[in-house]
Write a structure and sequence with these properties.
455 residues; mainly alpha; 58% helix; disordered N terminus
């Protein structure tokens, strides 16, 4: 009786097994959420423009403030995919894309965590933390693909037999997102940690292939421009320093704490400091840096949790576990309403009130206008901080009332303003007092023009 019962018990699914379904629920609901990412929208139009001209973009084609200035679109490969997908299905391709790429990311993280911990409970714990940290960053912009690529690079590098795939993954990564440098840093740090100098050639080749994309050495130029524009990035919300009001930051700090405990318990050898310390610091620099920093810490966190057995003893019989799994996999699809553009972030109605004149607006509206009417309608600015630099600071000063709008409007030939009702309330009042008339007003946006142009 005892020997017969043991295989049956082994076939039971524990709470830890079922906890690994958590990412799926968050991923499905998040994938079909409202599209509010303005950066994604201009990336779509960059793809269609590159297809029409037959080459990657090397100067700005979208704004009247920086038109013709040197600028490279790092994400040229994925932008072509966006354009192709939009041509087939409109923006309805977005949720399927997020679901597919997100699933690849979470499955890869699960495999990587289990390889390092050999513990179902530890793997489930890492997946839950990853869900908390990544769920709000799973947006349709190119950074989505960087998460999957970093996870795949880490998994491929984790086994000597699969390291042949790493250079190809880095070529893709360099054609999609500039964060490939973080992946190269991870490879370099693990080489130092493990002292695998015989693998140095593979690491060097992985770095060199990033110079063989459509931009060639232009990748270096892009990275330098991005570095020089770091000050301008601070004006964008996603590049602010994280704080404890962000749940994903608390989860991130929890992962660092587990690494510390692992060092103390000696489940994590001290040589892991070569990886843990740099990536822990990276996540403290900005909100945007938390996801790649966390991915770099996943192997260390998993190794620190070796032996974790919480939720692995009692479990459901296979039949009940199968029913529960099917319920969890299908339920999220009944909780979604379909993906559409956010009325709160984008001027879906206010845009119709614009004439052909130059328009003053913020970076979010700029990304939307590029997608909706670009490049025919040139924008004031968008979120390409490496391009606008001082103009972003200038815009923030005007919005906050620290800089007068008159000289800027005259210099740039501004003929109308598309402003957000709540955020730009003071500027709306100033323009109205200066003789600008409201030609459109809705719950979220206001369009104003000088009275002489409305008469």
């Amino acid at each position: 009786m005892t020997t017969a019962a043991q295989p049956l018990q082994a076939r039971r699914f524990s709470v830890a097994h079922l906890a690994m379904l958590a990412p799926w629920v968050a991923l499905v609901i998040g994938s079909w959420g409202v599209i509010g990412d303005n950066s994604f929208l201009w990336h779509v139009r960059a793809g269609s423009l590159q297809r029409s001209v037959g080459e990657v973009l090397t100067t700005d084609p979208f704004s009247f403030t920086m038109n013709g200035a040197p600028w490279r679109t790092q994400s040229w490969l994925i932008e072509l995919l966006y354009d192709w997908s939009e041509g087939i299905a409109g923006l309805s391709f977005v949720p399927i894309m997020i679901l597919l790429v997100g699933t690849i990311t979470f499955v890869t993280i699960a495999l990587l965590a289990y390889r390092r911990s050999r513990s179902v409970a530890a793997t489930a714990f890492v997946l839950v933390l990853t869900t908390i940290i990544l769920v709000s960053f799973l947006v349709p912009r190119p950074v989505l693909f960087s998460f999957a690529l970093m996870s795949l690079v880490m998994l491929a590098w984790d086994r000597p037999q699969t390291r042949w795939a790493v250079p190809f993954l880095f070529w893709l990564w360099a054609s999609i997102h500039a964060s490939f440098l973080i992946g190269l840093a991870y490879i370099g740090l693990t080489l130092i940690m493990e002292r695998e100098w015989r693998e140095l050639l593979k690491a060097v080749v992985s770095g060199l292939v990033t110079l063989l994309t459509a931009h060639g050495l232009g990748v270096v130029t892009f990275l330098l421009d991005f570095t020089q524009g770091r000050e301008a990035l601070t004006h964008l919300t996603e590049w602010r320093r994280p704080d404890f009001s962000d749940p994903f930051f608390i989860a991130y700090l929890g992962g660092i704490l587990f690494c510390v405990i692992g060092f103390v318990r000696r489940t994590l050898p001290l040589r892991w400091l070569w990886v843990v310390l740099p990536f822990a610091v990276l996540g403290l620099t900005s909100v945007r840096a938390i996801p790649p920093a966390w991915l770099g810490l996943v192997p260390a966190v998993a190794a620190a949790l070796q032996g974790l057995a919480i939720g692995t003893r009692a479990g459901l019989r296979p039949q009940l576990a199968l029913i529960f799994t099917g319920f969890v996999l299908l339920l999220p699809f009944f909780l979604i309403d379909g993906s559409e553009l956010s009325e709160e972030r984008f001027p879906l109605d206010a845009r119709m009130a614009l004439d052909a004149g130059r328009t003053f607006h913020d970076d979010v509206v700029g990304g939307y206008l590029i997608w909706a009417e670009g490049p025919e309608r040139q924008v004031y600015l968008d979120d390409r901080a490496e391009l606008y630099r001082s103009r972003l600071e200038e815009f923030v000063q005007i919005r906050q009332g620290d800089l007068g709008w008159e000289n800027v409007f005259e210099r740039d030939g501004i003929e109308q303003a598309l402003l957000k009702r709540e955020v730009d309330e003071n500027l709306v009042e100033e323009l109205s007092s200066a003789g600008w008339a409201t030609v459109h007003s809705d719950e979220y946006f206001v369009v104003l023009r000088p009275e002489e142009q409305t008469g």
